[in-house]
Design a protein that fits this description.
By secondary structure, the protein is of the alpha/beta class. The chain contains six helices and four strands; from the N terminus they run H-E-H-E-H-H-E-H-E-H.
Length: about 200
């Protein structure tokens, strides 16, 4: 197996940082509770005073796709990803007044766009932020949030409870499909964005 080749892909897609004290924890929309559980853990460690989950539902589904794991713990009826993630945070003892709301986004770029609108409306200056996401979604999430928060220093904290992560993604068909799907999406989505930026 060509380790040097695999390492290049791994280092590009699987971003992971040591979290530092920040102004905000962002969660891109998801039906996986582990993202909000990780955010709650960081919140209780005193690493950020606020959490902003984002998401209506995937534009591909047209409705909330449902709780993807741990349905026995989170068995409510949820209309949006935000509503679900908020419930996970509350069940993990995050104070409701510290959970901000963004429930319009239907894909990752909108997660970042509408999150920026929320923090701007609240007059919040986000100098440092933590981003909780799935491991293979880390680079694309970071690119979008960094695009909308150009002055912010981000610390990416991918969840550990995932069957596709940096240590094993190349060992399964699912992992290979997801990772190269991310590579493809980054190329397709950021080509147009970069062209628009170069014309400004």
């Amino acid at each position: 197996m060509n380790d040097k080749f695999l390492n290049q892909i791994t280092e590009f897609i699987f971003v992971e940082d040591k979290a530092e004290k920040s102004d905000m924890i962002f969660i891109p929309g998801s039906g996986f509770p582990q993202l909000a559980e990780e955010a709650a853990k960081l919140y209780h460690q005193g690493l950020a005073p606020y959490i902003l989950p984002s998401g209506k539902y995937s534009i591909l589904n047209g409705k909330f796709a449902g709780v993807q794991e741990k349905q026995e713990l989170y068995d409510g009826e949820y209309e949006t990803e935000w509503e679900f993630l908020k419930e996970v945070l509350k069940k993990n003892q995050v104070s409701e007044e510290h959970i901000l709301r963004e429930d319009k986004a239907t894909y990752t770029y909108e997660n970042a766009i509408y999150s920026r609108k929320v923090t701007d409306c609240l007059g919040m200056e986000i100098k440092k932020a933590i981003l909780c996401c799935k491991p293979y979604h880390a680079r694309r999430s970071l690119l979008y949030y960094q695009l909308l928060y150009p002055e912010t220093q981000f610390f990416v904290r991918p969840i550990q409870d995932s069957d596709v992560k940096r240590e094993n993604w190349y060992l399964t068909e699912k992992g290979i499909r997801l990772v190269f799907g991310e590579v493809q999406k980054i190329g397709e989505q950021f080509e147009d964005i970069t062209k628009e930026m170069s014309m400004e």
